[in-house]
């Protein structure tokens, strides 16, 4: 009897191949591709298509609502009671409520004079205004400069106080919370918050406070940001396009339909009673502003967004500063969603549809799905399907839906419509970091609570010029790290982006030779964008 030999299935396509390393890898690929890789990729395509449809429906809904708001909705002063505050001949200025201005700072050498000066020049009775500079600076020289600036304004009769803490516990949330505990602010009814690079117009309070005075159910009045350095470089133009959509559409729709939106952390006026009722400032995430807004909304408070009330500010003009900012803005909401989703579900004070809006639209689609579908679908799944022709991606999911979403996103900044295509490529690159940060927030892992101060250059705020003054200074948890010399080539390199550039380039070359869908055009352009960011030059392109 002949001993039976074990038999292995070897596809005909590889029979007769010399069994070197390459051949063995091909054999393994052919063996696992049909039963394992293809089904997994099909599942990945279906999931990405589902996420793309969710984002598409969200954008279309927002587009329809914003059109209705602009055409048919009443203006804020028509929807809410608004009576301008005037001096009374008999009572004087006592009919003006006492307003607290809080300006949190951390080593803000370049911009501290701008924010303090703007606050001191607000058109409001001086005896009804309390200005509080919350300085958490670790540099003694800067602390002295800020204190002297406060003293200079105090000598002019301005009620301004320079406030410091022993420790920086809680970061910005801790500083704001500590500021509200001071005895000299107990008589204040409202608090306006401005970050160190913000310059409110003199009439800011006169246009916002009356909404709070006349409508006791309103907790927050949020103004729109305007950017003094949006033309500084291509990086700032890209940021302007994204943020203008946020303010023009997302904030406006939230205010008009559910009287809810995320507080932007600055350029807003809060009713102090609402802050206290909501539990005050908390430092459990890096988005203390959004945390407070959600908690206040769950207690029935309403928010009002005023698109025509604007405050000037500065955009990050270095890639390092922008990346740290985006990490915080992506990680924080995901982490807050993890901590608050069940609290929102169990809440009894708000109606069902508002809870659906907050959980599904505000958090799930905008803060999680939007980042993930952009990265996984367009930077991972579609490139891999080029290598696996058995996996089919419908053109409506790969081209038509993204095109409509992009067009809808462009409504916020019509002047930059010619940059729309590059904005798409740039957003795809940044989705890599936003997705990574989102997972860190959802899993509450690693850098989930990392707070890095966004660098302000100052010159662009004061004179709107195009000078750049070095790399971004950063802080990890406690203090800013020492500035590094920008001229060192290696320090400019971002190896994660360069790795994806190489991956997309290889997929593009394969599609150029063997593909049928001409994806290589997109892949080569995306490769260039990943490479520009990878070599650290996006902030230098004017």
From TrEMBL:
<keyword id="KW-0472">Membrane</keyword>
<feature type="transmembrane region" description="Helical">
    <location>
        <begin position="400"/>
        <end position="426"/>
    </location>
</feature>
<dbReference type="GO" id="GO:0047259">
    <property type="term" value="F:glucomannan 4-beta-mannosyltransferase activity"/>
</dbReference>
<feature type="transmembrane region" description="Helical">
    <location>
        <begin position="43"/>
        <end position="73"/>
    </location>
</feature>
<feature type="domain" description="Glycosyltransferase 2-like">
    <location>
        <begin position="190"/>
        <end position="387"/>
    </location>
</feature>
<keyword id="KW-0961">Cell wall biogenesis/degradation</keyword>
<feature type="transmembrane region" description="Helical">
    <location>
        <begin position="356"/>
        <end position="388"/>
    </location>
</feature>
<dbReference type="GO" id="GO:0051753">
    <property type="term" value="F:mannan synthase activity"/>
</dbReference>
<feature type="transmembrane region" description="Helical">
    <location>
        <begin position="519"/>
        <end position="538"/>
    </location>
</feature>
<keyword id="KW-0812">Transmembrane</keyword>
<dbReference type="InterPro" id="IPR029044">
    <property type="entry name" value="Nucleotide-diphossugar_trans"/>
</dbReference>
<dbReference type="Pfam" id="PF13632">
    <property type="entry name" value="Glyco_trans_2_3"/>
</dbReference>
<keyword id="KW-0808">Transferase</keyword>
<feature type="transmembrane region" description="Helical">
    <location>
        <begin position="493"/>
        <end position="513"/>
    </location>
</feature>
<dbReference type="GO" id="GO:0071555">
    <property type="term" value="P:cell wall organization"/>
</dbReference>
<dbReference type="InterPro" id="IPR001173">
    <property type="entry name" value="Glyco_trans_2-like"/>
</dbReference>
<keyword id="KW-1133">Transmembrane helix</keyword>
<dbReference type="GO" id="GO:0000139">
    <property type="term" value="C:Golgi membrane"/>
</dbReference>
<keyword id="KW-0328">Glycosyltransferase</keyword>
<comment type="similarity">
    <text>Belongs to the glycosyltransferase 2 family. Plant cellulose synthase-like A subfamily.</text>
</comment>
<keyword id="KW-0333">Golgi apparatus</keyword>
<protein>
    <recommendedName>
        <fullName>glucomannan 4-beta-mannosyltransferase</fullName>
        <ecNumber>2.4.1.32</ecNumber>
    </recommendedName>
</protein>
